[in-house]
Amino acid sequence: MDTKTIGGLKIKIYQPQSHYRMPFTYQRRHTYPLPPYSTVLGLIANILGIRNLPDQEEPCIKENCNCSYHKLKQIKMSICGKFQAKSTEYIWLRNLSKNAHIGRFGSIENRFVAGHIEHIGGQSLCLIDILNDVQILIYLYHHDYTFLDEIKQKFENPANRYSPLHLGRAEDWIVIKELEDIELEVHETNGNYGYFFWIPERIFNIGCKFEFDKINGLIYNLTTFYKIKDGVRNFDYIKTKLNDGNLGDISTYFDTKEKIPIFFADLKEG
By C-alpha distance, which of 252, 256, 241 is closest to 205? Predict the structure, then answer.
């Protein structure tokens, strides 16, 4: 492998609105500025037609299998993006349990509050942070380039998708602005690139000069792949920094057209 250049697939996405929920935020639901790796993996699994099966921890549990799911587990991924503004929506969440209804109306038979008939159950106010005019850039690398070509073709004709193409909530639909094969070169980075970046600790950076501890940014443990155990998704995590675009004194892959650095996460170990 030529360690100074690498081939990949670029997916440029526009979203009018999006919400990439931070785990364990409830009454006010905070959003990451970028989709975590698991959210993008879900989008790719959707267009490849990869589905969970009943009573099975993963979509495929065969060993040494060459299916799309096992190829997806070998993928390297870089995510960056920006948005125009952040706003907050106010919504009511409805609880249809008997106790919630009694708590609001006083008895199971009553549906009147202040002289007006209301919906059954209880309700609580929830605030949701929303990103507006969102631009996301996803870069993919795989040692089997035919798999990247398959992903590209599925985005061009997503006939096997099992839900509308979205990133974030089910209503956060996407517009594919660009989809192209790309050659990335190793460059020195120094400056403000105007995007948020996920910069992983476990990075695929053959030929690059990179020290995770010297990168500025907030540390998150981001979700990647998961197994279903007892009906619950048990995720793997990867230690990652959220960088605001200010970078210097490192060398990494670089998109000369967009003029931004690329940081491939190595997701295969969890």
Answer: 252
CA separation for the pair 69, 78 (Å, rounded): 19
Q: Which residues of 186-225 are buried (b: 16+ CB within 10 A; e: fewer)?
A: bbebeeebebbbbbbebbbbeebeeebeebebeebebbbb
With CA atoms as reference, report the closest residue to 188 among 128, 81, 261, 108: 261
Does this model's pTM top 0.85? My answer is: yes
Q: Burial-class residue 232 by CB neighbours within 10 Å (0-12, 13-18, 19+).
A: exposed
Which residues are registered as beta bridge partners of 260? 255
Tokens 């006010």 — which residue? 28
SS3 207: coil
Distance of CA 156 to the CA centre of its chain: 20
What pLDDT digit, counting tens, does each position of 25-48 carry? Answer: 989 999 999 999 999 999 999 999
CB neighbours of residue 185 within 10 Å: 14
